[in-house]
Structure formats: structure tokens, C-alpha cells
Design brief:
The complex is a heterotetramer, with two copies of chain A and two copies of chain B. By secondary structure, chain A is of the alpha/beta class. Chain A has a single domain, classed as Thiamin diphosphate (ThDP)-binding fold, Pyr/PP domains (Rossmann fold). Helices cover about 30% and strands about 20% of the residues of chain A. In chain A, β5 and β6 form a beta hairpin. By secondary structure, chain B is of the alpha/beta class. Helices cover about 40% and strands about 20% of the residues of chain B. Chain B is built from 21 helices and 26 strands. In chain B, the strands form six sheets. In chain B, strands 10, 11, 12, 13, 14, 15, 16 and 24 form an eight-stranded mixed sheet that branches. A six-stranded mixed sheet of chain B has the order 3-4-2-5-6-7. The chains are: A alpha/beta, B alpha/beta. Chains in contact: A-B, A-C, A-D, B-C, B-D, C-D. One magnesium ion binds next to α4 and β5 of chain D.
């Protein structure tokens, strides 16, 4: 998928810039079904973090409940993880982010976890532009409770139950966008290279980076008539425009024809190169155009993948809050305790 | 004919008004001025669950003797609300006084002969002197404060001094209010002289330093002093002002020179999210808390279970109001005790703290954070609307010299570096049921673990093995035993502990309980609970007294359930004294129920008023 | 050397497998075939909280004597899971049997001399005869059923008959499975003869008609029979199959000829919404219910309070699992008792029903809807994973001839038309604490009222008056007294009521309790609770027995808390017998704890096994 | 606002087609602040129901908690009402609608009640295309708890607290549309004639009719710098196109130039006439165009009011469910009880 060859060199064979190997980014053995899309997503996260020189222990991993929500246990073993309760991952992540602004936060959720019980928290996390990667492993069903339709199941899609979905399927990208997320992308667990590029972009971005990843459930929703099956995804994907993520360490000199490629600077100094597709492709931060493109694709029965929206200017929650640079959890009594004089003063005011 | 009441520094004033008319500042001015003169006061704001146009009452108990619970009847009523005038008028005690707005005439049938009437043309006086419509309405309230000052023989300068403090920096407001005070004061002097009212306020040299503050302000400030950095909340009466106080004090005390914040306050999307955020912050090593009321506690049940089982500290302030359901949002109760103690499905228990006044509220926050960190579990600070939203007389807020934050068992980078054994998040190395935790990001390759609400082994690895599950649940019980040694002890508030009759109370029932006790001429001991689980002296107290009564403000005797259940006490040994109509518990309600219980148990006592009668 | 076990119709088979391999239907085939031969069985499926690849066990207790609780040890193990093989092997009782897949050789150290080994090349046999990969895996499971049949001397035609029922209409499957059965059967006959195993199954003429059914199916069907038309739910193990059963039975029994539905099943967005929908439906006069488990109950607290206070009927099935938090979703417990009884902030209480088998589950739904409608309050039907998801032996489901729905006090259009007094939604006209309700849309100008969770007067008008609030809360207590007369009585399950020792149990603890009791040679009475609040015979039973023990499957003795609290019983009088490791309570756990308690209370008894030893 | 004069005649002076007077549609005395926008909305509901000949007792009124949620008590005294808990009105209404498909259901909520605690239920009610009118009295703040910002408060808007909103304000119309609502409209409590027309259309429509009504809070959010104040609303409204609702009773013969007016048939036989505004106005059921129009208006700091979207084809929940015509609550034991023979049969299957 990458249209520019990566020119990033590893310091030593098999190790990244931190001298860590890929295995340092792995997690516990997966207990998911063989062939589950979620395992591919975990692998892509391992890959992206490894290539981005992410310090594994400087990551906080979050999830709700579901097969997808189990996956944070299956990558980054040296990170702390928090498998919380169903649908409430966003709030737990919010608190953690408030408590320490210096870690990289990765939240993994499922379509059941996010689009049903977690809808409110999802929308509000987007609205606050929390500085995190929020990834939904979207299989259109409730895997862990044995295959019920989720709210992202498309109208007419048929899972293993054999009954066609009769309700409107929610588009999480559109909802995230409409709620204030500053980065919105969609991918497919079977398209690792695109997914890794999107993950790197999301990691480099400061703000709420939402990725909706079609991740088939082989056990309950990989039927011929399912719109979340491997086959269907492979056949119905439209790519919004290839992208290449260029980490800030690497000096780049690239040849590209003016106007064909859009260049975006990310907060950590990285650069993003985007191929422009079609003549009606709007600017990356044109919300109206992005929504229109998504809805048009949906109407045409297609799935639009790639980076769909990016606004690097939108302040994240800490910026809005004007939080001090030192993480709040690092402040000790010296910095936090207002002193006995102040207390005496306050007592005097109340008497 | 009843003789007019006559009392010095011992009476109850009630101001019956309409909400949304700005009476709050005039009312506060009156109460604060009395207090500034050294006289103990207990103001209670009784307001409706709406914003404008419904009846609201401001009841001030003035008591040199320190009886600051609700008495339940009115010596002098200021009746300025047409909607409730009839009922307000009826409520005045025989011999009492009634002050009304005589701009319009009082209807004919307001003709009680057993009370004294004072007509003061509040609206007219205000209209004559102020042009702005909104100001006229506001200041007509200040006029009655001036009138009361004249009746009670208060020093007008004292009130004006208080005025200057209250509106510091807003000179125009000060001047206008001072004028309004004079108008009311002078009108009464001219028309009724200075001796017509038998109720008087005489300034005192206060025995000790005291403050007047709402519990919620003290809780908010307590959290600042306790080192809380994250506050997540969702608006709900009567807890909202905890968040407001925390934020206001942080703005004042916790910003860098260039305005950066050493804190974050987030208005969450609901209470589930609020507690989720608190759990996330504490998991990450920042002290975080939330404040809510009954409906919020109900919504937080699942998260309480998670924090209990995953062992993440969390502090939750529960400012109780009258339940169940939406109930009466602006009325007080102690009716979330049972749910708070056992919140969540499955086998769970949570420590509760019960402060009784603002100074204790302040300290309770430090205690709650220390306990939550040490025991790695959610801790609830239980107050109620009465304490939370009313100005309470209290000892000054105090922080013991040298008290430092107890962050509990946390392995930092150095400790992890030096660790020789394998780190186990849920390994009970010290035998107290509490294992060592680590904060994310501390060490490159030691100490990371996966937190979850599902069963895991001592090394935090997922398991469904029955033995690992039971092992963990039993360790949590050991931890509960440890917690018993960490919570504040119950305190003996009255008596020498040798009486036959023992009363137990907690929170805002204390003052009325003490007042009720003073009406009996037999020895009575009063024990005040300050925490759940119970300190050992609670069981001892119950065992030592022939008749034990438990005073609480709910229908189902919820604390009694906890006592019986946790201390294995026969329920019959604890007689419930209950009050649950949403108003603060009055002393006479307690006294009456005590009488009944004593009679039933065969103990013959007369209360002092009976003796006097 | 231990002699090989020998038993007829009294032993425990365990099949240790990997989940996601389709073993469920083969396992069910075995259990159902035994049952079809008239022999009582109790199959228990012990499965992990994941979809594929982790260990799962299928334990079948076979007991002509009717001991159908979990025994806790294994006579013959079918070990086909490499991951757990070692532990499974170790678990076989001395003298027992071990059947394994000999396609690969068993590791050297599997060399117990105290058990008998049967190697059957399950995989190889299946691979030799079936070509499709998935089918090979599935059918290798059927092969071990055939092998077991040969060992136990079962009639192969009986099993094939069962096969035909199980796969009715799928001839290809029937043929393939029949072949697999033969393969296993013949292999064993050829290699081990027909007498090598001391465990035998002998068909019986059953004394009475019995069925084998899961509790959840019976609950779902019960709701259909009880007239439920609205079901709102959110998927959660172990309650999901209640919704599935309701929907499946409705599809069969409740559609018009042209396929229109006389019901609606909605998969809600979460449990809060599910209960909200149920409340809305019942408010509107349709019988609606939901089914959930612990986490859902936690989330429903606020709505429980609303339904209690606003007095809207609602039925909630709680299929309990091991808590707290996510706990162990595929393990059983009775640990939501306390929360379910008092769910919500404020003063609240909810009736609970405790069925013990499928026939009671079926009836409990009718009882719950009648009670909810009559008492206008939420009612919980409390079961657990063990009863809900396992096939339980039971009397047939029964509906008494002529039993009709009790919709409680509802004024319809005619009644409203004829009403002479003013209609008051919360007016206690009958003195039982229950007022008359009306359904929306009934009458053009009479009977409309505004439902709310806030305080209101007897005519449903909003009020914050203290007296109106207390009046209402006290009426709710009167209603609670009425409810006591409406719930099913506790039943004496063993003994004549005159013993010194009394055991109390409820739900799925019954069978193991009865089995434990039979091991003692002193008179023991067993009382089974069927509802909260408690019927009068419960207090009497406790009073009449010198030593009372309460058997339950949770850590904190939650039902004991309810007994003590509601019946005013000294906790010391009730000795807890607890089991909470997530597995169904075994008889020997109960017997051991009983021994300990009896020893402590100074009662000397030997249990029969001690006597025998 | 109506561009065609109503030709509907009342049978008797002051009474409607049912012979009822306007007062028959009124409710209890309001306890809201004098001037509160919500009271105007109540008045508009009274007006619409009166003019539509709605039978008052055949209405179910629902709400959550808030000043707005109190209002169902202030209209239609002869209807049953249910003031439920905060944010959960949609689920209670869903259950009631399932229980009796024959009543008219009106749900009133606030922006706090819907956009924060109630977001999940709101989106799912829209997704199910529940047959109800769902109206949010949107004042950008939490009136009843004394004026905190709500999630619909616009970035930069200043309420009585004096602090400018720092987060992205949610657009409930866009979210409803993106979630599957079949009718979406916006109005202003101060524009009674538009509001009444929208209400009538919503009442005639079968499906989820969402109306976002800007309804200023005079006590806490009517400041000069508030975007939810009376003044701001009056000055920043763009009308998406005038509409005229023609009840099914009235025979109409109207002259209009072809192409200028769009005609839509509603389920109850009524007709809707819509003036087309601007040349880029899409069809009423073009979701993409509707979203684009809303987002463009928002970007331009304008508020687009009127009927923004209408899809009369989308099946409502009962249609999807294939529920029998008789309301479920009217079915007695005769219709519901499957009989003892069936039970015997089932017993036999389990043995
Ligand atoms: C409060 C609560 N309700 C229900 C459940 C049961 N539950 C576990 S996972 C799950 C759905 C998971 O679906 P999704 O998020 O799509 O994850 P997937 O398994 O498909 O990856 C549900 C409903 C729960 N754990 N908690
Ligand atoms: C669970 C719960 N949390 C909080 C509250 C307190 N509360 C009452 S009304 C309200 C907000 C109302 O705002 P909105 O819906 O916008 O209505 P408005 O008053 O502005 O019309 C809140 C938070 C509550 N009643 N219940
Ligand atoms: S059930 Fe589906 S989602 Fe879950 S692990 Fe298996 S394939 Fe993946
Ligand atoms: S506070 Fe605001 S929303 Fe509430 S009644 Fe007053 S003006 Fe209306
Ligand atoms: Mg899923
Ligand atoms: Mg609002």
C-alpha cells in the first residue's frame, strides 16, 4: 500500500532505534479463535509500536469487555493494561490520561462495546479530543456472547444465525467525526500495511485518533452474506488515498508531482504524505467533505478505508485544560499541598 | 392570651420567601452577622427542586447553649411569600412573632391573637429608594434584615461590616444594601420602638474559635489539601457544590504563575463515566475523586464492583438526599447507607466515612484518600444535604503539622529495580491482605501487570481456576480486617460510658441527639459512629448498655442492618429511632421516640420538660 | 492396589475437551440417552469464558438414587484435551477409569496403577471414515460416546434413537453419527471386551414422568405462558438463553397464520435500556420482562428504584454468575441476593423468587408476573448458571387447569366511567398499601395521571411536603406486608419438622443439601426458601430448631443477612455453610461444614460414611 | 411562516374537529421561570395537538429529568405521562411503544438529558426508528442544576458563569440523522408558527421524528455572548425552506409553480408542502445533502432551522418486528396462552 519506499534504517539487524526487538512488543498468547481478525490487529499494533520506537513501558492499554477487549493482553507485555467493564473503557482511559499526560494511550474496543453500551462514552471521548488511539475491532457482532448482531451490523447482512439484520447499521467513523474526533480512519484487519500506516499516524497524532477496523469474526460472522466477512471486505473496499507515514527521525527527500500529494505535519515532528484520490477529494480537515465521501460510499455499498479526516490544530483535552507539563501523578505533597498559612486564611474568611 | 415569647440568644427565625428572588444573600447576611457577633447559629435553607417561583424557607436557629440541630418550630416568621403565607402564619409558635410585607394589606383572617404582628412595607420602601427593577426585588430582602436587626436589638454596624465582607470589591452593592438595612431598621424603630420584641440577640465573646461553612466547601477544600488532582463529576443536587468548591479552591491555590493547572476538573457525561475517570486516574497514580448523590451511586454500582475486585483506589463523596429514585432532590436523608456499603453485585464491601461537621469533612477527605491508597479500594465519604449545603458551625479546619500523604503500597522504579523475587500484583507478601501495586510507566521491564475485573491469579494472570478465585476472595476478606484497623474510631460524645442507656448516631443526627439527651434526667451515653467497618468500641458499647438506640435519618434503619450484620448482634438489642421526612432530624422527634422505647422496655424516665410541666 | 470401582447407575463421568470443537452435541447425546433409559442424570457443562481452544468439561452424574447435586470427584474421565490432560488424569478417583485418544501415545508418566486405562484411537477412527475436516473433529467426539456405551453396557439403539431425535430432519448427520457411535462401540468391544469396566448403566422403568431441560428454557417458556409480550434484553452469559428460549417459543407459539407476532423481542443497547423498556411496557399494560446477570443488575439499580417508587410492575430474571465485577462469567454463584433484594439508593425492597428446578422456573414466571402486577413493583426471579444453563432433571412443566393471569388492580374504561369518587393513583382505598392503576388511553377524561420518581401526593400531583412523602413511604411498607402474603411459602424438603437440627437452603443448593443430610444418622429437617420476603414458616422453623444452618453459594452469607434483617433474628442463631468457588456446591462440602458446626455447637454426630469406615 | 393560508375550518367556534377546545389540551400550571423557552414549546404542542384533532387521552408523554423534562406535566392534562429518570426516557418510551402501538407518543428531553447521560439511548431510539416525536428543548445548559454547560453548548459560547465553552458542541440533528432517524428538524421556541408546523408534521409522520428546538434558559444562558440566547437565535437563524402541513381531512387545491414546491405524503394521509430554498437544496431524503447543509451552516456560525430531513419509506420498529395490529397490551390470556396441549408436547420433547 505504501507508495513511497520506507527509508528508515534499523540500527542493528532485527532491533529498532531503542535496541528492542519485535518480540519485546509482543504480548501473552492469544486465546481467540484461529483466524480471528483481532489477532491481526494485535500484530499490526506490535509492528507499528516496534517501528515507531515506542517505549513499551510508556504505554497504557485499555479495553472494555469482549473478544476484542481481551486483545490488549496479546500485545505489549511490558505495558500496564486495564481491561475494564463493558462499554466504559473511554472513561477509564480519560481518567488515566488526566493523571499522566506523558504516556501513549491505546484503547481497544469492539463494536458491541462501543456502538451499544459504550456509545455515550465513545462520543464524549471524541468530543473532548482525548489524546489517545481509540480502535474498534469491528466484526458486526458480539463475538464473546456468541454472535448476536451488533449495532454496526449492516442492514441485510446475514450472520451465522441466518437472520438478516433489519436495522440501520451505525457508522462509527461518521459518528466520531460528527462528535469532534480530530483523526478518523478506517481499515481492515486483512490489510496489514494500510493498518500499520494508520496506526503510526494515530500514534504520532496528538488528539483523539479513531480507527474503525473491520475485523471479521470467523466463528459467528464470516458467512457469505455477511458484510463483515473477509471476502466481503476484500471485495468492497475503496481506498480513500494511499498514505505514507514518515517518522520524525528520518530526513526525507522525496520526489512527487506538485498537487498529487498532500503533506501534513504531525505533533511529534513526523510527516504524513497523502496521495490525493479522485478530483473531488477535499482537504483532509474538511469535515463536510469527509462525511459526504463516507456516506456516498455507504450508499453505494462500498467501504471507504484509509485516513478519512485529520485536524492537527484541534487542541487536546490537556491543552484545553491548561494542565501543567509535569504529569499530575508525578506531583508530590510539596507541589500539591497549599500550606497551613493558606488554611488559616481560609478559616478566617469563614468566621 | 399567650404571653409574648421572650428569649436572649435562644430562638428560631424563619424567613419564608420565593425562590429565584435573590433572597439567599440577604438571608446569609443575617445569619453571618449573628455569628460574627459570637452567637452560635445554624441556618438551614429549605428550597424547592426548581429555579424560580416556588416557596423556599430559611430557618435560622440561634442558640447560645449550642443547640444547633433543627428544633422544628418557629419563634419568629418573616412571611414574604403570598403562596405559602397562610401555612407560614399558622406555623408560628404561640407567643411568637410575625413580620410581613405591609405594602399590601394582610388579609382579614390573618388575625391570630396569640402572636405579635409587625407590618413593614418592604416592597414600598425598596421601590421608593431604588430604581432598577431587579435591584428593587433583591433589596426588599435586605430591608427585612434591617427590620429584624431592629427587633432583636442587633448592632447595625456589625451587619454592615459583614456586608462589606460579603460584597468585597462591589462598592455599589454595599452602599445599596446598607441603605436597605437602614430603611428596615429605621422603620421598625419608628413604628414599633426598640423593645416590642421579646427575642433578643446579645453579642458574646466566643469561647473558642469557630467557623461557619458548608460541608461541601470543606469537602472540596479537603480534597485540595489531600492532594487530589483529578476531579470528575456530573451535576446533581446536593453534591454539585463539592465540585464547585474544589475547582474554586484549586483555581486559587493550585495554579502556576502563568496560570497552568496542577489539577483537572472534568464535567463527565454521567455518573458512570465520572467514577470510571476516577478509577482511571487512581490506577495511574493520581489521586482522583468524584462527588454525587443517590441516583449517581445507583448508577456507579458496576464500577464500584470493578474497583473493589481489581483493587483500584477511588474516593466518592455521597451527599445524600431523600430517595428512592429522584425522590426529593432538595431534601436531606441518610438513606444510601446500605447501598453504599455493599454496592455492586457479587460479594463486595466498601469502607464509609461519616463526618459530622465541616472540620471533619475537611479531614475526612485526607483520611479517605489515605485509606483508599492504603487499602486499594473505593472509599465513600457519606454526608447529606443538610451538612453539605447548609452553613454549619464548626471548629476551624485543621491539618496536623507534619501529616503527610499515605500513598500506600506502591513499588516505584527503584524498588522494582531492586526487587529480587518475581513481582506479583496480588501476592499478599505482608499478610495483611494488601498487595503491592505499581504505577504504569515506572520501569522498563519490571512491574507491568494487566488489571481486570475478572478472576486472576496472584501474578495478575487470567484464570478461571476455582482455587485461585477463592484464594483471592479470601484475601479480600483479610484486607477487610486490616481496614478495620485503619478507619477512625467511634467517639463517645456524651456521658461517661457507664450509663444503662446508650444512643448511637452518626453524621448530622449528632446535634439533635445531644439536645434530645439533655432533656432526660437519667444518665445516657452517646456514641457517634465515624466509619464503616466499625471500630471495636462499637460492639463493646452495645454490649455494655442495657438499652441501645440507633438514631438515623432513613425509613429502613439501614445502619442498624450494617451493625447487626457485621458485628453479629441480635437486632432486638438495637432500637431504631428513625426520621425520614426529608427535613433535618429535630431533637423532639428523637426525644419522643426515646420515650416510647424506654416505656416499652420498662425503663421509667421523665424528660425534663415533662418534669417542668 | 485399589480394586476397580464397581457401580450400577451410581457414578460420575467427566469428559474433558476443548471448547469450540463441537463436543456439546455429542456430550448431550450421551446424557440424554442415559436419561432416555430411565436413569436419573445431572449433566454439568463447565466451560471457559472464551469461544475456542480452552479447556471445557462435561460432568455427568448418574444416580438411580436421585443424588443429582455435584459430587465433586470423578469415576471415569474421558480425557481428550492435551492442555488439561495431566490435571484431568490426576482427578480420577482411585479405582476409577481413564479413557483417552490413543491416536497418539500417552506420555510415559501417565502411569497410575490405581486406575484402569482405555486407549481408543478417536481421531484415527474418525479420520479413517470421514473426509470433511470439520466433520472429522465433530465426529471424533461421537466416537467416545460409542466407546462409553460399550463400557457401560448401554443399549446402542437407545442412543441411536436419541440421535434421531436430536438431529431430526438432518439425515446425513444422523447417519454419520451412527457410524461414529458404532466405531467407538466396536473398538471397545474388540479390545476390552464387554466386562472390563465396573461401571454399568441399567435401564429403569421410571417411577414418574420426568423431563430434562435447562432452567433458562423453562424460564423463557414460562414467560410465554405467563402472557409476556415484550422482552428486552442485552446479551450476557449465563442469561442469554432465556431470551433465546422466549423468542424461539414465541416464534413457534405466538405468531398469527401470516407470520405476524404477538410479541416483541428487542436486543437493547445495554441493561439500563433493557429495564427501561420493561418498565415502559408494563406501565402501558403489557407484560414485559428482561433477563440478565450480575453486571446487568448493578447497572439497573437506578431503574429498580424508579419502578419501586413509581410503582410500575417489572419482571427481571437474574441468572447469577460468579462475581463481583466481570468475575467468572461462566461459573455459578448465588451472590447477587443482597443487591437484588435492596437494589437502588434510598429505602427500597424488592420481592425475589427462588425456583430450584425447571418446573419451578416455569411456574416462577407466572408467579412473578402476577406478583408484579398485583403489587405494582419489580420482582426478580433468581436462578444461577448451574440451573440456568445445565439440563436439569425435573417434574414436567405444569400449568394448573384454570389458572388465569392476575393483572392486579387496574381500572379499565368501564370502571373509570362508573367511578364516583375522585381517582387517586396512590390512594390506599383497600388498606393493603396497593392503590389502583390505570393504563394510558383507557378513558377520555378520567384516570390519567403523571408517573414520576419524585415525591407526589395520593393524587399523583408533585409535592415536596414532608407529610405527603412520609405517608407514601409508609404505604409502601404496608404494601410490603401485603407482599408477604402473596409470595410462595418455604417448603419442608426433608424431615418432619421436629428435629433438633434444621438446615435452610434455596435454589440450586437443594440437591446437594439433601444428599449431605442423608449422610448423617441424626434427624435433620431441611427447609427450602422460595421467596423474599419470607413466609411466616421461616421464622417459625428457625425458632423451633436448636441448631440452624443456612447453605448458600456466596462468600458473605447474603441470605443470612436478609433473614437476620427482615425477621429480627440474632445472627448467631444461623450458622452459615458457604461455598463460592464458582462450581456448583458439592454435597461433601456441605457435609464437612455441617460436621464442623455440629462439633462446635457441641452436638456429637457421625456421618454415615464415618460409621461405615 | 406559512406560505399557504390554512383552509382548515373549525366545526364550531373555538372547538376543533373533535369538539374539544384548546383548554382541553392544556396541562398543569408551569413552575418554570418566567420567560423560559420551554413554556413556549409546551404552548406549541398544545396548539399542534389541538389543531390536529389529537385525542388527548390517546397520547403518552415521556421525559427524563430537567426543567425541560418537567414540561410534559404542563400540556395535555388528559394524557398519561411518565417523568422517568435522567437520560433514560428513550428506553421507557420504547417499552411503552412496544406495549401499545396505537397511541401517539411524545418524548420531551433536554440537551443535558439527551446529549450527555442519554446519548446512547437517544442514538439507539433513532436507529430503531421508533414511532414517536422526540423533542429536545435545547438551551445549551443544565437549567435545573443551575446552569452548567451542556454538551450542545457551542465552542466559545458564554453562559451566566462567564466562562466560555472550550469544547466542541454536539449537533443533535446531525447525530440523529447519522443514526437513522427518519425525520429531523430544528426550530426555535420563539418561532411558534414554524414550530407548530414541524410538530404537526412530526405527529403525522410514522417513525422517529426528531426536533431540536433552541429554547433559551433565561436564568442561566441568555447572556449576550451565549449562542443559545433569544437574541442570538433571532439573529442567526437560516430557514431551510418554509413548509406547510396540510392535514388529511382537508381537501386542498393549491396553485404553485412546478418545481418550486415539493409535495410529500405522510402516513396518516396528510400532505406536506415544502418550499425549495436555494439551488443546491437536495431532496428531502438525501442524507448526505442534509448533513452537508447543516455542517455548512454551523461552520458559517448560522443555525439552520426547518424540516431538514424526511424519509417516509423507512419502516418503523413495529413494521420491522411484524407486530400484530392489535396493541400487545390489548391481548388477553385467550390470545396469549399457548394452551395445555402445546405444553404437553413440549414436555414430551424434553424427556
Ligand atoms: C454490563 C455487561 N453486559 C453484558 C456483558 C456481556 N458481554 C461480554 S462481551 C459482550 C459483547 C462483546 O461484543 P464486542 O464488543 O463487539 O466484542 P467482540 O467479542 O465481538 O470482539 C457482552 C455483551 C458484560 N460483560 N457486561
Ligand atoms: C442520575 C442523575 N444524575 C444527575 C441528576 C441531576 N440533574 C437533574 S436535571 C439535570 C440536567 C438537566 O439539564 P437539561 O436536560 O438540559 O434540562 P434543562 O433543565 O436545561 O431544561 C441534572 C444533571 C439526576 N436527576 N439524575
Ligand atoms: S468468537 Fe469471533 S471475535 Fe471472538 S475470538 Fe472467535 S472469531 Fe474472534
Ligand atoms: S432555569 Fe432555565 S431552563 Fe429552567 S425553568 Fe428557568 S429558564 Fe427555564
Ligand atoms: Mg464485535
Ligand atoms: Mg438544558
Amino acid at each position: 500500500m505504501s507508495f513511497i519506499a520506507p527509508n528508515f534504517r534499523h540500527p542493528e539487524q532485527g532491533a529498532n532505534g531503542l535496541g528492542l526487538r519485535r518480540s519485546d512488543y509482543e504480548g501473552a498468547l492469544s486465546t481467540l479463535c484461529a483466524g480471528c481478525g483481532h489477532d491481526s490487529v494485535s500484530a499490526a499494533i506490535v509492528q507499528a509500536c516496534f517501528e515507531m520506537d515506542v517505549e513499551p513501558h510508556r504505554v497504557g492499554k485499555f479495553s472494555g469487555i469482549g473478544c476484542s477487549s481481551k486483545t490488549p493482553n496479546y500485545f505489549l507485555n511490558h505495558s500496564h493494561g486495564f481491561n475494564s467493564v463493558h462499554g466504559r473503557m473511554p472513561s477509564v482511559a480519560t481518567g488515566a490520561i488526566l493523571g499522566n499526560r506523558d504516556l501513549l494511550y491505546i484503547g481497544i474496543s469492539g463494536d458491541g462495546d462501543t456502538a451499544s453500551i459504550g456509545m455515550g462514552q465513545f462520543i464524549h471521548a471524541a468530543r473532548r479530543n482525548l489524546d489517545m488511539l481509540y480502535l474498534v475491532e469491528n466484526n458486526g457482532c458480539y463475538g464473546l456472547t456468541k454472535g448476536q448482531d451488533s449495532a454496526t451490523a449492516d442492514l441485510g447482512s446475514v450472520s451465522k444465525t441466518g437472520v438478516a439484520t433489519e436495522l440501520y447499521g451505525l457508522d462509527l467513523c461518521a459518528l466520531a467525526l460528527q462528535s469532534g474526533a480530530s483523526l478518523v480512519g478506517r481499515s481492515f484487519s486483512g490489510d496489514k500495511s494500510q493498518l500499520v500506516q494508520l496506526l503510526k499516524t494515530a500514534i504520532a497524532h496528538r488528539g483523539f485518533a479513531f480507527l474503525d477496523v473491520i475485523s471479521p469474526c470467523v466463528t459467528f460472522n464470516n458467512t457469505p452474506a455477511s458484510t463483515k466477512s473477509y471476502d466481503y471486505a476484500r471485495e468492497h473496499i475503496d481506498v480513500a488515498g494511499a498514505l505514507d507515514f514518515v517518522p520524525h527521525q528520518s530526513a526525507i527527500e522525496i520526489d512527487y508531482a506538485e498537487g498529487e500529494v498532500q503533506k501534513v505535519h504531525l505533533h511529534d515532528g513526523s510527516e504524513l504524505l497523502l496521495e490525493k484520490v479522485g478530483k473531488d477529494a477535499g482537504a483532509l480537515d474538511d469535515k463536510t467533505a469527509a462525511l459526504a465521501a463516507m456516506n456516498r460510499a455507504q450508499d453505494a455499498g462500498r467501504m471507504l478505508t484509509g485516513l478519512l479526516y485529520l485536524d492537527t490544530e484541534l487542541p487536546d483535552l490537556h491543552t484545553v485544560n491548561r494542565t501543567v507539563a509535569t504529569p499530575l501523578n508525578q506531583l508530590g505533597q510539596d507541589e500539591l499541598f497549599p500550606g497551613l498559612d493558606a488554611l488559616e486564611q481560609i478559616n478566617a474568611e469563614q468566621s | 392570651m399567650t404571653a409574648p415569647l421572650s428569649a436572649v440568644n435562644e430562638f428560631v427565625v424563619c424567613i419564608a420567601n420565593v425562590n429565584g428572588t435573590g433572597s439567599a444573600s440577604a438571608n446569609a447576611l443575617f445569619a453571618k452577622a449573628v455569628f460574627a457577633g459570637g452567637v452560635p447559629v445554624a441556618p438551614k435553607n429549605i428550597f424547592p427542586s426548581n429555579i424560580q417561583g416556588l416557596p423556599t424557607w430559611f430557618e435560622v436557629r440561634i442558640s447560645e447553649a449550642g443547640h444547633l440541630g433543627r428544633r422544628g418550630d418557629i419563634d419568629i416568621m418573616v412571611g414574604v411569600n403570598a403562596q405559602s403565607l397562610e401555612a407560614d402564619y399558622a406555623q408560628v409558635r404561640p407567643g411568637g412573632y410575625f413580620l410581613y410585607d405591609s405594602t399590601k394589606q394582610l388579609p382579614q383572617h390573618f388575625a391570630r391573637e396569640d402572636i405579635t404582628h409587625y407590618g413593614v412595607p418592604l416592597t414600598a420602601l425598596s421601590a421608593d429608594h431604588f430604581s432598577d427593577m431587579r435591584q428593587r426585588q433583591l433589596l426588599s430582602n435586605t430591608v427585612y434584615v434591617g427590620a429584624l436587626a431592629a427587633l432583636f436589638g442587633m448592632d447595625l454596624d456589625r451587619i454592615k461590616g459583614q456586608l462589606a465582607r460579603q460584597f468585597a470589591g462591589k462598592e455599589r452593592l454595599i452602599d445599596a444594601n446598607a441603605l436597605a438595612l437602614d430603611l428596615g431598621h429605621d422603620y421598625v424603630r419608628q413604628h414599633y420602638g426598640s423593645d416590642s420584641c421579646g427575642l433578643k440577640i446579645r453579642e458574646l465573646e466566643p469561647a473558642s474559635e469557630r467557623i461557619l461553612m458548608t460541608g461541601n466547601s470543606a469537602l472540596g477544600l479537603g480534597a485540595v489539601y489531600a492532594g487530589a488532582t483529578v476531579m470528575a463529576w456530573y451535576p446533581i443536587t446536593p453534591s454539585t457544590s463539592v465540585a464547585e468548591a474544589f475547582e474554586a479552591y484549586c483555581r486559587r491555590l493550585r495554579r502556576t504563575e502563568d496560570g497552568e493547572k496542577r489539577y483537572a476538573v472534568i464535567q463527565a457525561e454521567d455518573e458512570l463515566a465520572a467514577l470510571g475517570m476516577v478509577i482511571g486516574a487512581n490506577w495511574n497514580g493520581a489521586r482522583g475523586f468524584t462527588a454525587t448523590s443517590g441516583p449517581g451511586i445507583s448508577l456507579m454500582n458496576e464500577f464500584f464492583g470493578l474497583a473493589y475486585f481489581a483493587e483500584v483506589p477511588a474516593v466518592v463523596v455521597n451527599v445524600q438526599r431523600a430517595g428512592p429514585s429522584t425522590g426529593m432532590p432538595t431534601r436531606t436523608q441518610q438513606s444510601d447507607v446500605l447501598l453504599s456499603a455493599y454496592a455492586s453485585h457479587g460479594d463486595t464491601k466498601h469502607p464509609l466515612l461519616f463526618p459530622s461537621d465541616p472540620a471533619e469533612c475537611f479531614t475526612a477527605m485526607a483520611d479517605a484518600f489515605d485509606l483508599a491508597d492504603r487499602a486499594q479500594t473505593p472509599v465513600l465519604v457519606m454526608v447529606d444535604l443538610d451538612l453539605g449545603m447548609n452553613e454549619y458551625l464548626s471548629a476551624p479546619l485543621a491539618w496536623p503539622e507534619g501529616r503527610s500523604y499515605d500513598r500506600g503500597k506502591v513499588l516505584d522504579a527503584d524498588a522494582l529495580e531492586n526487587l529480587s523475587e518475581r513481582y506479583g500484583r496480588y501476592l499478599d507478601v505482608d499478610g495483611d491482605g494488601i498487595a503491592w501495586r505499581t504505577w504504569p510507566g515506572s520501569h522498563p521491564d519490571k512491574g507491568a501487570f494487566f488489571t481486570r475485573g475478572t478472576s486472576r491469579d496472584r501474578y495478575a494472570a487470567y484464570t478461571e481456576r476455582s482455587e485461585a478465585y477463592s484464594d483471592n476472595m479470601e484475601r479480600l476478606l483479610r484486607k477487610w480486617e486490616t481496614i478495620k484497623t485503619l478507619v477512625p474510631e467511634a467517639t463517645l460524645e456524651h456521658g461517661d460510658g457507664e450509663a444503662e442507656i446508650g444512643l448511637i448516631c452518626y453524621g448530622t443526627s449528632l446535634l439533635s441527639t445531644l439536645e434530645a439527651v439533655r432533656g432526660f434526667d437519667v444518665p445516657i451515653d452517646v456514641l457517634r459512629l465515624r466509619a464503616f467497618p466499625f471500630s471495636p468500641n462499637v460492639g463493646e458499647f452495645i454490649a455494655r448498655h442495657r438499652t441501645v438506640m440507633l438514631i438515623e435519618q432513613n425509613r429502613d434503619a439501614q445502619m442498624r442492618t450494617l451493625l447487626v450484620n457485621e458485628l453479629e448482634i441480635a437486632p432486638g438489642l438495637i432500637h431504631p429511632v428513625l426520621h425520614y421526612d426529608g427535613m433535618p432530624i429535630p431533637a423532639n422527634t428523637i426525644a419522643e421516640q426515646m420515650q416510647r422505647i424506654l416505656r416499652r422496655t420498662g425503663i421509667q424516665v421523665l424528660d425534663k420538660e415533662d418534669v417542668a410541666a
